[in-house]
C-alpha cells in the first residue's frame, strides 16, 4: 500500500517509518522541513519526502492522488501554552482539505484517552481534532492512548529524570491521579495492525497496558525496576504553576510542555474498553516490562527517536536552512586550528561530542553554563543527545541544535539554543591537510551582546583551546 506518514520526524513517526518499510509498504514522509528528517541514507532512498506546513495555506497537487492510507501524527502541545488548540484545529482542517485531492481510503489518528466531561486543554484539543477528522472524505480510525513508555518518549524521560535525580521527592497532589501507561512497542503494533482493517473504520479505540497506576506508583515501580528505592511525600500546596516549574527545573522537559503536561496530569486517564486488543489479538506488555524494554534500547544505543530532538524543545520553530550560512560580517569569532595525527579518531571524537561524553575539557564549566541557562529559562544541558555516536541534521545536542552533520566532508555545524544576547554558531571541520578547524561565531544583539562576548572571552581561551586539543587527541 502507499502510505502517507505525517509527522514523520516526530517521536512516533520515526519509530513507525522503518516498520512500515519492513512490511513492504511504499511510504511518503510529510515534514515541514526536509533537512530535519533524521534518517539513514539507506532509508531516505526508499521513501518520498514532501515538505508541507499544515498551518499554512493549501497548495494544490502537493500529494500523489493514489495514497491508500494516511497517518495523522501531528500535534502542537509543546509549541505553545496559549493557542496550541487553535493551531491543532487548523492543522486538522487543512489536512482534510489536502486529502480531498487524493483517493485516500483510511486515516489513522493517534489521540489521547478521554474520560471526563471536563477535559484538560490538551485532551480537549485532541478530541476536537478527532471530531474534525471525522468530517473528512475517508474512513477514520482513532487510537486513544495515555502515557507512552519507551526510550526517548517525553513521559518516560520525565519519570527517568525524576527518579534518577531525586531519591526523595516532595510532590504535588496530582501524583495520586490514576493513569494507564502503554509501551511504545504496543502502540506501534496497534498503529500497524489497523492498516486496512475494516473492523476499525470510523471508530475510536482506547489502547493501554494492563496496569492502572497512579503517577506515584509509576515512580515507585520505575525505581524498583531499576533496583533502587525512592521516597515520595505528597503535599497539597503546590499549584499547577509551581508544579510546572518543578518539572522544568528537575527534568529535561521544556517549560511549555511542562505546563501542558501538568494540566493533563490532573485528569484521570484510564482505558474504557479492550475492543481493539480482541480485534487484533494483541496483549500489551506491563508497565515494568515496558521499562525493561526501554532500557534494553538505551543500553544497546539503539534509541531511534527522542522527543528532545523535536524543534519545540528549543528555540527553533522551523526551517534550519536559514541558519546554515554562518554570517561573516558584524560578528565576533574565535578561530582555533590544530594539526591532527589521526583524522579518523578526531572525526569520531567530533561525532561523539556532548551528552554523556562531554565536551573534552572542563566539563564542570559546561555544566555551570547549562545550569545558568536553565535558571534563566533556557534549555540547559539536560537534553543531552539521542545517540552516543551518531548525529543527524536537526538533532538536539545539549544546548545546541545540529544545523549540518556531514561526516563525508568532515564537518559539523551547531547553532546555540541557550539564552544569549545574540546568535551563536560552533563549527568543526577537518580539511584535506588534516587540519582541524574549530570556529565559534557570535552575532551580538546590540551593546549587551558585545559586552557578553568580551566578558566570556577569557573562558573561551581555555575552554575552546582545551576542547580542540581533546578532540584532536594527538598521541
Summarize this structure as a short list of keywords or feature phrases:
7-stranded parallel sheet; 475 residues
Shape: globular
| Spans where pLDDT lies below 50 across 5 or more residues | 77-81
Main β-sheet description: 7 strands, parallel
Amino-to-carboxy terminus distance: 54 Å
- How many helices does DSSP assign? 15
Strand numbers in spatial order across the main sheet? 3-2-1-4-5-6-11
Strand content: 15-25%
Portion of residues within helices: 25-40%
Q: Quote the average pLDDT.
A: 84
What is the total tally of β strands?
Answer: 19
Alpha-beta content class: alpha/beta
- Overall radius of gyration: 23 Å
Secondary structure layout:
Elements: E1 2-6, H1 11-22, E2 26-31, H2 41-44, E3 48-51, E4 69-72, H3 84-99, E5 106-112, H4 121-133, E6 139-145, E7 148-149, H5 154-165, E8 168-172, E9 178-179, E10 182-183, H6 184-193, E11 203-207, E12 213-214, H7 215-226, E13 231-235, H8 240-250, H9 255-265, H10 275-280, H11 287-299, H12 321-324, E14 332-339, H13 343-351, H14 363-375, E15 396-397, E16 400-406, E17 411-416, E18 422-430, E19 435-444, H15 446-472
Parallel strand pairs: 1-2, 1-4, 2-3, 4-5, 5-6, 6-11, 7-10, 8-13
Antiparallel strand pairs: 9-12, 14-19, 15-16, 16-17, 17-18, 18-19
Helix pairs in contact: 1-6, 3-4, 5-7, 7-11, 8-9
